[in-house]
Amino acid sequence: SPELLTMMENDRQKGTQYFETFREYLLNERDIPKTSEKLIIHRTTLLYRLKKIQAMINANLEDPWERLYLTLSLWILEHENR
Length: 82
Hints:
- This protein is mainly α.
- The protein is built from five helices and no strands.
- Helix 2 packs across helix 4.
- The chain is globular and about 30 Å long.
- The model has no long low-confidence stretch (mean pLDDT 94).
């Protein structure tokens, strides 16, 4: 997904953590309490970041096919970097 690459670059330039937040959110199967605990951030911080991420990548995270595409994109990115 080109949007994930853009998000990674924005994080690098601006010092944000949107990519890692999104990665954990997908890996924790969109479980808000579990994701916020894993990231050690407050629930409202996570929800704020997810709104920003959704606008950034222009994706409907309720659509299972879009989530699958993004999850596979994450997997490819992680395995390319190894």
